[in-house]
């Protein structure tokens, strides 16, 4: 199973016409995991964009993950898949993609996280911290939930919802270590500068965290 513990800044992005310039820009800026999260295109129309994104991620040695469909991940040779509570099971993804695949699982409540822990996922996500347009109708789960998930997990827990250069430092100070970013990059007028700002704030905050004894 791949180690995601040092992968801190995770971008979720839908297909976009400027991907040839957008994706390299945010990767230069410090994004170190990429997920194609496309809710509008059928799977067969995601194959070409996914392969294109994968080739860019390979140039930067960054894992590329697709959303919802382990079959798409297998078809394009992606590093893994991220699934939600109502998608195909983690066990089924693992059976199809193998032991080395990255498999992520979303959680939004203590009960869901309780059920997630025994599953063979590589990482979990927790959130959204606050309501967000990428999860319409879902209320924020708050900081305490994310911190509880991280404290209980032996694998990385990526927090979602409203992460930006302005708040990522305070989230690190609170105890969080892995972050999903969407709008702060996908809506940025200068994606590389925005990614560098987020990454800089993240790394600066992490550098102030006391080293835990081994």
Low-confidence stretches: none
The total count of helices amounts to: 9
> What's the average pLDDT?
94
- Specify the overall morphology: globular
Q: Mind summarizing the main beta sheet?
A: 8 strands, parallel, barrel
Gyration radius over CA:
16 Å
What's the CATH superfamily, by name? Aldolase class I
- Major sheet: arrangement of strands: 1-2-3-4-5-6-7-8
CATH class: Alpha Beta
Give helix and strand order, one letter per element, not per position: EHEHEHEHEHEHEHEHH
Write a brief caption for the model.
The chain is of the alpha/beta class and 214 residues long. The protein contains nine helices and eight strands.
Overall description:
- The protein is 40% helix and 16% strand.
- The protein has 214 residues and is of the alpha/beta class.
- It has one domain (9-207): Aldolase class I (TIM Barrel, Alpha-Beta Barrel), CATH 3.20.20.70.
Keywords:
214 residues, alpha/beta, 9 helices
Secondary structure: elements and pairs:
Blueprint: E1 9-13, H1 19-29, E2 33-36, H2 47-59, E3 64-67, H3 70-76, E4 80-83, H4 90-97, E5 102-107, H5 110-116, E6 123-126, H6 142-152, E7 157-159, H7 168-174, E8 178-181, H8 183-186, H9 191-207
């Amino acid at each position: 199973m791949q180690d995601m513990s040092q992968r801190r800044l995770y971008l979720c992005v839908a297909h976009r016409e400027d991907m040839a310039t957008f994706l390299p820009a945010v990767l230069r800026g410090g994004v170190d995991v990429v997920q194609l999260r496309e809710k509008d295109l059928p799977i067969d129309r995601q194959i070409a964009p996914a392969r294109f994104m994968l080739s860019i991620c390979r140039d930067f040695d960054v894992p590329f993950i697709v959303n919802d469909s382990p079959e798409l991940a297998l078809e394009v040779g992606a590093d893994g898949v991220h699934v939600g509570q109502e998608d195909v099971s983690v066990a089924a993804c693992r059976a199809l993609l193998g032991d080395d695949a990255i498999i992520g699982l979303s959680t939004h409540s203590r009960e869901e996280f309780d059920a997630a822990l025994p599953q063979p996922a590589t990482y979990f996500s927790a959130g959204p911290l606050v309501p967000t347009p990428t999860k319409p109708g879902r209320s924020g789960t708050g900081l305490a939930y994310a911190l509880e998930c991280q404290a209980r997990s032996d694998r990385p827990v990526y927090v979602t919802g409203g992460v930006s250069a302005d708040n990522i430092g305070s989230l690190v100070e609170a105890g969080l270590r892995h972050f999903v970013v969407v709008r702060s990059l996908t809506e940025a007028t200068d994606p590389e500068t925005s990614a560098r700002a987020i990454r800089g704030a993240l790394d600066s905050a992490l550098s102030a965290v006391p080293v835990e004894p081994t």
